[in-house]
Amino acid sequence: MALKVAVRKNQLELSKKSAAMAIFLGKNYLGQTDNPQVITEPETATADDALTAALREEAAKMEAEDAAE
């Protein structure tokens, strides 16, 4: 764990001079990637709160109006 802390500190210092070195260190020692991970809600998500439900309803009305035109 101490190695990762040291790498993080070095990465910050090196990134001021060499972005390529910072990227290399991050990928090889910290497991960083170029591809962000998309986090989705679990299947058992709770019902929308009142604001979200109202916004969904308004969006549906607007889409219906656009489709009718």
Structural write-up:
Helix content is 64%, strand content 0%. The protein has one domain (2-33, 45-68). It contains three helices and no strands. The model has no long low-confidence stretch (mean pLDDT 78).
Spans of at least 5 consecutive residues with low confidence: none
Number of strands: 0
Largest sheet: none
Q: Helices and strands: which structural class?
A: mainly alpha
Radius of gyration equals 23 Å
| Helical run tally | 3
Write down the overall mean pLDDT: 78
Count of distinct structural domains: 1
The termini sit apart by 61 Å
Percentage of residues assigned to helices:
55-70%
Please name the defining characteristics of this protein.
69 residues, 3 helices, 64% helix
How would you concisely characterize the structure shown here?
64% of the residues lie in helices and 0% in strands. The longest helix is centred in the C-terminal third of the chain and has 19 residues. It starts with a helix and ends with a helix.
